[in-house]
Write a structure and sequence with these properties.
The structure is a single chain. The chain has 186 residues and is α/β, with parallel strands linked by helices. Strands 5-4-1-6-7 form a five-stranded parallel β-sheet, with helices on one face. It starts with a strand and ends with a strand.
Length: 186
């Protein structure tokens, strides 16, 4: 049986803080809400948009307004990808382990944005499975995404290693029962 290596995307596989912050900054500006890099890093990074956007948008925006900002952010994401950086050390590990391990990407980000960055960096083919916010009902810190990846490959927690960086991602990884490596190279 092959082991499973599951990795988070934002902040783990790629440094995308600037990409996401700029995408959200532009989307929020169209609604009249400012967003600084500091606010994004402290309040938003690693969290699901439905959890942080209401806070950034004054505490009680409509669900439609939150979705409108998120849809704009996804549309603007590709324009900001020039600021992304690969975690070269983690990619070296994944490439070395790919012949003997299943590789899965588990992110709270959208499928659209995950696919865009993987295509831009020509690494989509490295992953046998990609799970995004559209594939789970409960986002991180819930372990659902990691548990789904284990179930997909028929691998238990004892045969799984997870690379994560954010507080919410680390909570999800630990709750899955797998071995967890904190990966904050950026």
């Amino acid at each position: 049986m092959k082991n499973l290596i599951a990795v988070d995307l934002d902040g783990t596989l790629f440094d995308t803080v600037t990409v996401n912050a700029e995408s959200y900054r532009r989307a929020l500006a169209q609604e009249g809400f400012p967003l600084t890099d500091e606010t994004y890093a402290a309040q938003c990074n690693g969290r699901h948009y439905k959890d942080f956007l209401p806070e950034v948008m004054g505490g009680s925006p409509t669900a439609e307004a939150v979705e409108r900002v998120h849809e704009r952010k996804k549309a603007l994401y590709s324009e900001c990808l020039g600021a992304a950086r690969r975690n070269e050390a983690l990619f070296a590990i994944l490439e070395a382990m790919a012949p003997t391990c299943h590789l899965a990407l588990v992110t709270t980000g959208s499928r659209r944005n995950a696919e865009e960055i993987l295509e831009r960096f020509a690494c989509r083919g490295l992953f046998e499975l990609i799970l995004t916010q559209e594939d789970v009902t409960r986002s991180k810190p819930d372990p659902e995404g990691y548990l789904r990846a284990m179930a997909y490959f028929g691998v238990d927690a004892a045969h799984t290693i997870i690379f994560e960086d954010s507080v919410t991602g680390l909570a999800a990884a630990k709750a899955s029962g797998a071995a967890v490596f904190t990966c904050a190279a950026f």
